[in-house]
Amino acid sequence: MNSNVKPATGKLGILVVGNGAVATTFMTGVLMARKGLGKPIGSMTQYDKMRVGKGDEKKYLKYGEVVSLATLDDIVFGCWDVYPQNAYQSAVYAEVLKREDIDPVRDELEQIVPMKAAFDKNYAKRLDGDNVKDCKTRWEMVEALREDIRSFKAEKKCDRIVVLWAASTEIYVPVEEKYHYKLADLEAAMKADERLYVAPSMCYAYAALIEGCPFVMGAPNTTVDIPAMWELAEKTQMPIAGKDFKTGQTLVKSGFAPIIGTRCLALDGWFSTNILGNRDGLVLDEPQNFRTKEVSKLSTLETILKEDEQPELYTNYYHKVRINYYPPRNDNKESWDNIDIRGWMGYPMQIKINFLCRDSILAAPVCLDLCLLIDLTARAGRFGIQRFLSFFLKSPMHDYTKGEEAVNHLYRQHTMLKNAIREMGGYEADEEID
Prior knowledge:
Elements: E1 12-17, H1 21-34, H2 44-47, E2 49-52, E3 59-62, H3 63-66, E4 75-81, H4 87-94, H5 106-110, E5 115-116, H6 138-155, E6 160-165, H7 177-180, H8 183-191, H9 200-210, E7 215-217, H10 227-236, E8 239-242, H11 249-262, E9 266-276, H12 279-284, H13 287-302, H14 311-314, E10 318-325, E11 334-342, E12 348-356, H15 359-379, E13 384-385, H16 410-424
Parallel strand pairs: 1-4, 1-6, 4-5, 6-7, 7-8, 8-13, 9-10
Antiparallel strand pairs: 2-3, 9-11, 11-12
């Protein structure tokens, strides 16, 4: 098969914004896996197989056999964080992994020391670190971050860099046409230091794209989900993806809602609540930060169980999402879903789902897959929003200015993912999405 993808030669630098529970679990897992001491379970790029070809030509291959992917040995980590502790100290502090699963790679983790973060306390009031850049304007933030990326790339002799946001959820930034629709307006706002409209995360994304690095938004922040950033991605010919890692409750919702829809059962209400106690929970305890998360979690159901397609089944159902900060649980979050449905002749039934999950254990393989796959798309010359990565994301990006609707249906997302990889591998994208 003919593939026009440039091969994954040399080192892939992964620069993570954030050095907390998710970031350190991701880094530690990769370092342990390449020593043969841990298994990257949950990673599609490491385990999933897909069909290519049909009939006599049919075979099932791992992603790395279909396309050229960077290997775990190729990866070099760096990060930014508001706290100065190295990745080893931070991994121990996070209490996600046991010491015996961290100590074998202690030396490597200790060498991952966070660069000073581009930070504005107004965007995450519960965080109090002092490892912060002294920038007078948002534009200065951009310039400082660009310098960080260039220095890291040169120092670590990386061929390519991917920038991944695995930091906290910022306060909600509504999309404003005056600042967010045109690249020139966004740049002007950065230079004028319009702090209410330009979040620090936008500075990271801008710096990454200008420096020729794909950018992944792993929180529900508005960051790259604005036309100005889409314009920048086109201009720099860089891929972007977001937003918010799909790990626990939304993964269940995007996989379970299709059961209700496929079986033509009616929905009266879906109540989702969570408890978690890590740094994410602390930040989300602030109402303005929770608002950002709520918008991303609420969008899932409405695009799967659609009123306009089945008005008798899906009109006016009640959908509620709650997140509660509960320190004793730390990273071991728990979600409850109560689903009220109706069946034959309108008789009511209920479904209860109780998911006791580990946030960072579910997020780490998603981080790996997103980084490897967005690096692949950059080498394939694809740029702009990468819709096929919606499988990994809670609130998939889409062009809302043109009325486009996000695909949240897990099985359609899986088909989109496989089709894109087939295409980049020089095979036919031969699975249809109804």
